Amino acid sequence: MNAIDVDDETYKKIVFAARMMGCTPSEVVRRLVDASSTELGTAAAKPSADLHSVAVHALYRGQRVEATFDRNTRGVTITDGPHTGTTYPTPSAAASAVVQALNPDRNPNTNGWSFWRLTSNGDELKALRRSA
Prior knowledge:
Blueprint: H1 8-21, H2 25-45, E1 53-60, E2 63-70, E3 76-80, E4 87-88, H3 91-102, H4 112-115, E5 117-118
């Protein structure tokens, strides 16, 4: 087994992520590396027409929901989770559908620009709002 050195603050974040994900710190790093490798390979393999699609996700009530945001239409297509395969005209419509599915007793009105996170860096989707 090989080891890597990280600063104390990064190590604390990895340990925290491991607790949240229910896995080991090594598994967190492995998943990050796998996700980055997959995203790089997928981006290189995709034709330029697909470059308007941005991977996003949401964590709601302990469940991760994967989706894509279309920069051209501003629509969101859920790729894994409740309503997989459904495209919504706005981030808020998609967020409301997820909330309704996972927490039917709550009013589903949700600001999708804050609900969805960019998978690449964890920023809120609203970071793309100006450029979308």
